[in-house]
Amino acid sequence: MINLNSLIEKTTAFNIVKKDKKEGSLSNAYLLSVNDKVFLKEYLKTFAKLICCEEEGVCDSCRTCNLIEKENHLDVTFFPKEKSILTADIDELIESSYIKSYEGGKKLFVLVGAENMNAVSQNKLLKILEEPPKNVYILLGVVNDYPLLQTVKSRVKKLEIPPFSREDLFSLLQNDYLDKKKLELAVNNSDLSVGEVIRLYENPELFEVKSLADSVIVNLTSSSQVLKTSYEIMKKKAYFNDFLTFLENDYRNMLLYLNNKQNLVLDNNIVYLVETSIDYKIQSILTILDKIKEAKKRLFYNGNEQMVLEWLLLQILEVKYICKKLSV
Asked: Which of 46, 55, 163, 221 is in Cβ range 3.0-4.6 Å of 192 for a Cys bridge?
């Protein structure tokens, strides 16, 4: 298991709670926002340890920290008990909050994926947020706090962990994920969350999908190639969204290069793409990036993947044709 503590302990959110604890002014409820659905619970465990550990920070070796890690601490309860937080979970939380601490200290309730609560559950939770029992603390974890009621958000102390830097992610993962070239590709094309980097790294066809994106940029030159190209891409259907991400990032890097910002380019292959693909200018790349955004939107609204792909390939061809025509 990846130990995220080395990164989390550097964050402003961690140090806010650490300061609150040191000063004896812990908030009764914290809302932690993290852009990592895969590891959200791990972030919350670290903050749960921070709140409950007898040391100033997180020792990660005491009985309290060990029990929280295993989700066996009698005074620290994680929800949901099943797949998502239900009204029954909130009922249990409220009832348990009025029962005396088993160990004579804090009682902590951790809600993982709190944005998935329905309005009824949120309104029930609101009652205890307004008048929490003594020594009872609630830690809500979300990837996106938009679905939460404003009345809930107004009664919690908000914390946010922004995306980590590429350097920090690479440093964190390089000892467990040993293919450095693959890890670099995963990091540079991720949303800068640990979970997404690992998911990309573990894609067995990562390089093949990236190669398909590069090929579209360089080799797609006629409408007769659309069906063949579409067929090759759809053979990797499970990784279609990754293909779109690679394609989008390639064009973004090409745009940086053409704008003389080579120091920001994250892919060494971009020079080849730019010099080989003479049909691209700055405005044409901006137009294609808009088309990719539109393709993602169509997919979100249940568009057929192959139809969306063929539409996008034709759009790219049209932009390349217009660009080439204007260059003559």
From this structure: 163
240 close to 246: Cβ distance less than 8 angstroms: no
Measure Cα distances from 45 to 36, 108, 130, 306 in Å: 14, 11, 24, 41
CA triplet 79, 82, 84: central angle to 5 degrees?
A: 70
Both structure tokens of 241: 């969204």
What pLDDT shows up at residue 265? Answer: 66
How do residues 185-231 score in pLDDT, each as one tens digit?
Answer: 999 999 999 999 999 999 999 999 999 999 999 888 888 899 999 99
CB atoms within 10 A of CB 302: 6
Task: Report cis status (omega within 30 of 0) of the bond before 162.
Answer: no
- 139-161 burial string, b = 16+ CB within 10 Å, else e? bbbbbebeebeeebeebbeebeb
Helices 180-188 + 194-201 axis angle, to 10: 130
Residue 109 CB contacts under 8 Å (≥ 6 apart), including other chains: 76, 77, 79, 93, 96, 97, 136, 137, 138, 139
Which residue type sits at 66?
N
Res 264 pLDDT > 70: no
267 pLDDT band, cuts 50/70/90, is confident
Count Cβ neighbours within 10 Å for each residue of 36-57 and write b for 16 or more, e otherwise: beebbbbbbbbbbbbbbbeeeb
pLDDT in tens, 138-163: 999 999 999 999 999 999 999 999 99
Q: Are 94 and 111 in contact (CB under 8 A)?
A: no
- Assign 260 a pLDDT band (cuts: 50, 70, 90): confident
